[in-house]
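Figure 2 data, in text form.
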Amino acid sequence: MKQIKYYIWIAACALALTSCMGGENLKGEWDAPDFSGGAPFGNNAIQETNVITIQELLDKYPNVYEASDKNKLIEEDIQIKGRITGNSVEGNIYKQFALQDKTAGIIVCVDAGDLHGYLLEGQEVLIDLKGLYIGGYGQQPEIGMPYNGTSIGRMPNSIWQKHFKLVGDVNPDEIQPVDFSTIKSDKKKCGRLVTIKNVSFQLAGKYEKVNGVDRIATFAPDDEELKTGGAVNRSLNEQGYKTTVVIRTSTYANFAAMPLPYDVTTMTAKKCNLTGIATRYKDDWQLLIRKTSDIDIVAE
């Protein structure tokens, strides 16, 4: 009898812990953690003052991010607030995340893994910018710390934890993507969540040499001759896209070994809609797919 009571006590404790921390409900869905008493991450002492939009921040430092390999210390007492649009959930966005408000988007670089554990898609974040740096990596605006002197790179996690606060609820509905065709002519609109509609991959259904062996083309084969900077660029077939944007995937992404979408019967490329963060590298657009569900095969 004592043993039975002990197991009941253990079960009750587990249920109480789950209800406090957020857990799986009877439908198999996971509830967001309850941070009403203050999040266990970041700096809860930060007060919302002197908040500017992301676009206003970019307008303050145009000569920094539009020139590669430059950075500048933010000395003003200013803040930005936005929602997370992309994180490290499936390994394609590494030690950084994308932040967006209603005016613009920007990349925030932090030297820490698994940021998606608390920086969920749709989470609203307040960032105290004073003491951080803004710069351009390949003309893509980023917040971080100096790298190799003049460039911009990741800030130490210890610094990051002092400069942000989680606010509001997690609401992915607030970060709906825009059609990439509406912004592709203006690279100053980089860093936003977009969808590229009704496109196909040039190598889908084709074979290529991967480490000397012919293999069906995947998103990011781990081959030194195919990758640059630990990632592989894939081109699209459609006019207006095949020379203006690449789909860039890390060889560490969960879907790196997934074949590019193709019809197994005809060995031809399938049409799909691709969602991700539209980043810039100099004059080129790069789409960073966040997760497998961002690859939506178009019905025939």
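Caption note: The radius of gyration is 21 Å.
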